TrEMBL record:
This is ArsR family transcriptional regulator. InterPro entries: WH-like_DNA-bd_sf, WH_DNA-bd_sf. SUPFAM superfamilies: Winged helix' DNA-binding domain (SSF46785). It comes from the Archaea.
Protein backbone atom coordinates (compact mmCIF):
# COMPACT_ATOMS: atom_id res chain seq x y z
CA UNK A 1 0.00 0.00 0.00
CA UNK A 2 1.43 3.37 -0.92
CA UNK A 3 1.71 6.17 1.61
CA UNK A 4 -1.03 8.30 0.03
CA UNK A 5 -3.56 5.47 0.30
CA UNK A 6 -2.47 4.89 3.88
CA UNK A 7 -3.03 8.61 4.67
CA UNK A 8 -6.45 8.50 3.03
CA UNK A 9 -7.57 5.47 5.01
CA UNK A 10 -6.23 6.76 8.33
CA UNK A 11 -7.86 10.15 7.76
CA UNK A 12 -11.20 8.59 6.83
CA UNK A 13 -11.12 6.39 9.91
CA UNK A 14 -10.36 9.40 12.10
CA UNK A 15 -12.69 11.93 10.43
CA UNK A 16 -15.54 9.81 9.10
CA UNK A 17 -17.32 11.03 5.98
CA UNK A 18 -15.40 13.93 4.47
CA UNK A 19 -15.51 16.22 1.46
CA UNK A 20 -12.89 15.28 -1.14
CA UNK A 21 -11.33 18.76 -1.12
CA UNK A 22 -10.97 18.72 2.67
CA UNK A 23 -9.55 15.18 2.45
CA UNK A 24 -6.90 16.40 -0.03
CA UNK A 25 -5.90 19.17 2.39
CA UNK A 26 -5.79 16.86 5.42
CA UNK A 27 -3.67 14.33 3.50
CA UNK A 28 -1.43 17.08 2.07
CA UNK A 29 -1.78 15.85 -1.51
CA UNK A 30 -2.89 17.53 -4.71
CA UNK A 31 -6.54 17.08 -5.63
CA UNK A 32 -5.73 15.16 -8.84
CA UNK A 33 -3.48 12.71 -6.98
CA UNK A 34 -6.10 12.19 -4.29
CA UNK A 35 -8.82 11.67 -6.91
CA UNK A 36 -6.72 8.97 -8.59
CA UNK A 37 -6.14 7.17 -5.28
CA UNK A 38 -9.78 7.46 -4.21
CA UNK A 39 -10.85 6.02 -7.58
CA UNK A 40 -8.47 3.10 -6.98
CA UNK A 41 -9.90 2.47 -3.49
CA UNK A 42 -13.46 2.81 -4.77
CA UNK A 43 -12.91 0.22 -7.52
CA UNK A 44 -11.76 -2.21 -4.83
CA UNK A 45 -14.76 -1.50 -2.63
CA UNK A 46 -12.74 0.06 0.18
CA UNK A 47 -14.37 3.50 0.01
CA UNK A 48 -17.61 4.92 -1.32
CA UNK A 49 -17.94 8.21 -3.19
CA UNK A 50 -21.19 10.07 -2.76
CA UNK A 51 -21.72 12.72 -5.42
CA UNK A 52 -22.80 16.14 -4.33
CA UNK A 53 -23.42 19.41 -6.12
CA UNK A 54 -20.65 20.42 -8.48
CA UNK A 55 -17.61 18.56 -9.70
CA UNK A 56 -15.63 18.63 -6.45
CA UNK A 57 -18.50 18.38 -3.98
CA UNK A 58 -18.00 14.69 -3.37
CA UNK A 59 -18.13 12.99 0.00
CA UNK A 60 -15.79 10.07 0.64
CA UNK A 61 -16.56 7.40 3.23
CA UNK A 62 -15.20 4.05 4.32
CA UNK A 63 -17.25 1.13 2.97
CA UNK A 64 -17.86 -0.84 6.16
CA UNK A 65 -19.96 -3.42 4.29
CA UNK A 66 -16.72 -4.81 2.80
CA UNK A 67 -15.19 -7.42 5.17
CA UNK A 68 -11.69 -6.42 4.04
CA UNK A 69 -12.32 -2.93 5.40
CA UNK A 70 -12.75 -4.29 8.92
CA UNK A 71 -9.39 -6.08 8.60
CA UNK A 72 -7.77 -2.88 7.30
CA UNK A 73 -9.32 -0.85 10.12
CA UNK A 74 -7.99 -3.28 12.73
CA UNK A 75 -4.53 -3.28 11.09
CA UNK A 76 -4.39 0.52 10.96
CA UNK A 77 -5.42 0.79 14.61
CA UNK A 78 -2.74 -1.72 15.65
CA UNK A 79 -0.03 0.06 13.67
CA UNK A 80 -1.08 3.42 15.13
CA UNK A 81 -0.88 1.95 18.65
CA UNK A 82 2.62 0.64 17.96
CA UNK A 83 3.82 3.95 16.53
CA UNK A 84 2.38 6.14 19.28
Amino acid sequence: MNSTRWKILVTLLEEGDINITKLAKKCSVRYDVLKHEVDFLERRGIVEVISGDGVRAKIIRINYSNPKVILLKDLIEEVKDILE
